[in-house]
Amino acid sequence: MYSRLEEVHPSVGALKKLIILDVRDCEKLERLPTMLQSGVEVLNFSGCRSLRKFPEIQQNVNRLTESTSAFEHGNIRGSLDLRGCSNIETLPRSICRLKTLRFLYLNHCTKLKNLPEDVCDLEHLEGVDASETSIWCIPNSITRLEKLKFLSFRKVPKFFHESELCSWGCFAQLDLNFQFPSNLPSGTLTSLDLSACNLVDGSILEYLGWFAALLTLNLSRNSFTYLPKSISLLYSLRFLDITYCEKLKELPELPPRIMELFADDRFALQSIPTLPAMYKELYLVSFANLKLQEMWCNSRRESSGAQMRNCPRENMTEMLEDILLPFLSMVQQKLVFDDPHRGGIFCIAFPRSDPRDEVPSWFMYSAKCAKAMCFNLNKHWYSDTFLGIAIYCQLPFLNDESPKDSSLSFSMFRSVQVTIKLVPDRASIDQQPLEKIIRLSVSRVVACGSFDCFIFFQVDMSKVHRKGKGKDTMVNDPNDYCRFEVSIGPCIPLHLGVHLVYADDSEGDEVEILSV
User: Fold this and answer.
1) HEC string of 97-108?
2) Is the CB of residue 485 less than 8 Å from the CB of residue 365?
3) Where are the alpha helices (DSSP H) in 283-421?
4) Structure pTM?
């Protein structure tokens, strides 16, 4: 915006019809008007690192009535964005006069220690992102926020702060435990992020079963040794992150409808052979490795990848044999994928120590440093013994800083999109390509530079319909689809591999590989 701006003129505070005040990224801004009117709906001060004090909010009865009416008609977009205001230490109680407020962004306010006690007056508040602040205790009044859906108090581990990889300034303090009210608004909360909050056995963990509406839960980088059985009662939970919980002894019993699990790779050998069969909707298990994480941070600080290359880590071939091949054996015995909820997909992601590694030799068809890959299938690729397609991709996931877009502020994961296509030949031009889009994710607490991702995609043409004239019809001959394509978004050069999987794993002729 206005990079040289040091002060917003005091007269702005008297503008009773002011709706939006946006001075984002004004790093030299030090002074705001001492007061602002309560009718303002959008306040954006993100990136104002020199700002030390937030103004008082003046009660404006007439404007307040207008705002309430607008809420009844669904026209409110109220937000207060203070992301990156690292010198603000307190918020005035009068901030709770912003009755139109729906989202409060406080991440990277590293000196901020408290939320206002009257936060319950923000009756329309839906989301609070207080990540990487110095807030370790939540006011009890927050329990009266009946519309609260998103809540984040994520901290940053000390070695991230010391590595100077980003502007993160607040790290987990070992002598503090996060203090929660005993009765949070459990009926509405859908997303809860308590990463690196030094949670131990007991505490808030014992009440997890109360959060019936919870969809996403991040408990990574904490100090508990077990998760209570009540976590299995979270029937709505789809995403669970327990990476870097070094004291955790074993994986807990998971919620029945879990879709994505993020955990340490020390659990990989014991979990991959069993998880797909136990949880019918689970389609992604994304692993992490703390030692690789720390070495990656050190290597980035020293501008050298030597430590990463020297990491004592099983090579990719051994990992493939120990984890992926037993899983494929389950596929060949048809022990998984019978449930329609999974959509015939299962994905595994785990960090690699050396990004120079090649595509594993098991994948018959490969492309190096390609944005996409396609090849022509043989005439009779689809048979009674065909099970599906195994895809390998090496993806760079970088996390130098939190997202600048406030719409991504509550996101706990970083994702890429994999698009798979089966394209018909010209003689069957009336048939449309069959397309499947798959999302691969890693936890945002992971900053490691590269991941190996494995996708198994079951292709059961007996269940595939194509759109014809008037209504959908069954695919007559699957072998009419003669071309396979896979692409990754965003478009970045990477290593790709594909293997057609058969019950006896002996079929599948050599094909011509085309890299893009």
Assistant:
1) HCCCEEEEECCC
2) no
3) 290-301, 306-309, 316-319, 325-332
4) 0.85
Read off the pLDDT of residues 438-492 as tens digits, 9 standing for 90 and up.
888 888 777 556 788 889 988 766 655 554 544 554 566 788 888 999 998 776 7
Total tally of structural domains belonging to the chain: 1
CB 109 within 8 A of CB 88: yes
d(CA 208, CA 227): 9
Tokens describing residue 161: 């702060």
By C-alpha distance, which of 281, 289, 240, 255 is closest to 452? 289
Q: Would you say 443 and 386 are in contact if contact means Cβ atoms under 8 Å apart?
A: no
Question: Does 123 fall in a domain?
Answer: no
* Per-residue pLDDT reduced to its tens digit, 118-177: 998 998 999 999 999 999 888 888 888 889 999 999 987 655 544 443 433 344 454 567
- Secondary structure class of 222 (helix, strand, coil): coil
- Collapsed DSSP state (helix, strand, coil) of residue 71: helix
Helix ranges, 226-289 (H): 268-271, 275-278
Say how far apart CA 389 and CA 511 lie, in whole Å: 15
Q: Does any domain span residue 261?
A: no
Domain span holding position 496: 298-515
CA–CA gap between residue 184 and residue 362 (Å, rounded): 50
The pair phi, psi for residue 465, each rounded to 5°, is: -110, 150
Dihedrals φ, ψ of 230, to 5°?
-65, -20
* Helical ranges in 13-93 per DSSP H: 61-72
Cα–Cα distance between 129 and 408 in angstroms, integer?
A: 11
Inside any domain, residue 322: yes
Whole-angstrom Cα distance, residue 440 to residue 456? 12
Task: Note whether residue 489 is domain-resident.
Answer: yes
Span between the terminal Cα atoms of the chain, in Å: 38
